[in-house]
Amino acid sequence: MKRLLLLVITVLSAFLGIMAECTDPYFKGGDEKLQQWFVKKMKYPQGALVMEKSGCVTFEVTISGKGKVEDYTVLQSSDPVFTEEAVRLIEKMPKWEPAVCDGQKTEGKVHVTVQFEPYTWMHKHVKSGNWFGTAGAGIGISL
Question: What pTM was computed for the model?
Answer without folding.
Answer: 0.74
